[in-house]
Each structure stands twice: as C-alpha cells, then as structure tokens.
Amino acid sequence: MVSLVRMWFRKQCWRLTVNQNHWKINLDTSGVRLSSMFTSLVKLKRNYCSDNSKSIDRKKQLVKSDLYYLKKFKPCRNKPEFKGLTDHQISKKLRSKHLNQLHKQFWEANYKNPNFDLLKEFPLWLKGNKLIKFTPCFEGMKLRQIIYLNEKELEQIGIHRLAARKILVDCFKFIRIALEDSENQHHPKDQRFLGMTVKRSCLNDSIKTE
C-alpha cells in the first residue's frame, strides 16, 4: 500500500506545472527539449529584432534614394514608360539608367581611350571592367603577354564567360592600337610597365616588376 502511494505521489510531482517567466512548462521526460525550445525562441526573438532593425534602416535608405532620383530626374516621371508605376519603381528604373550611363562614361574614358596608369594596377583595371573575379587567371603573366591574348586563349586560362572574353578582347585591342600608334594621344612614352607581372590575385597587391 505504501509503495502504491509513493508511486502516485511521484506521478503527481512529475506532472507538476510551474510558471517560469510566464512560460508554462510541464515537467515530463521532454524537459530537455522544452528548455532547448525556450532558448531557441529567445534567440529567434533577438534575431528578429536585429533583422527588423536592419530592415528599417534599409527602408530608410531606399526612401532617401527614391527621393534623390525622383527629384533629380523629375521631368522623366511624365514619360509613357513610367505610367502606372509607383515612386519606388520609377526611382529604381531611373537609378539603373543613371548608373549605366556613369559606367559607360567611365568605360569610354579609361578603356576605349586606354588609361595606362590604371592598367599598371591590373586588378583595379579588371575591377573597373567588373571582371575582378578573373584576376587569378592572369597570375604570373606579364602585361605584354596579357594584352595579346585572343578569345580562345582567354578561355584556356579559365575565363569561360563569353561576355567577359569579348569585353577583354575589345579592351586589349584598344590598348594595342594606342601602343602601336605613336601619334595617338594616349600613346605612353615609357612602356617599361609592360614587363610587369601579375604576382598575386589580391586586389590590394601591386604588380611588381621582375
């Protein structure tokens, strides 16, 4: 009889419910899982607050950007192509056009009309062409060798993206034209930099002369 009472008492204690931090936790065999779940919920709440804060900051930046482009290109808002679009959608299109225009101007000023000072910092030269990730493909090569690479050779050294190869081939052609024509306004008098070798595939590393 005593043993039965003890068993009943233990069973009741096992089912005892406590209130801890307003969380009702049943003391059963899944106590460890409940504790783990509570910890996860706390972390989730923290992450949510953090992400929510970042989201608010991001929205503020977008609104600020929208106002800038809508004000800068106010006459464009009446164009048929923007009919029925929200301010944010109009701003996004205007921003994209503006950045493309800036990149085109930069490309013409530094690549179509070769900037040899930029070329000396070859990783930066690639970055300006949005091709920085291909820097390791040229490691160990001299600039004199690089500017004569054709499309097939570029693919052989690891540049498998067709658009990237075409951009590089065009840029190399402009460089060769400027180098070969002494009358060209961009013709560099000192061409010793062509003996430089790409030593490392790090953006911050300089190209050292052997």
TrEMBL record:
Source organism superkingdom: Eukaryota
Native source species: Gigaspora margarita
Protein name: Protein VTS1
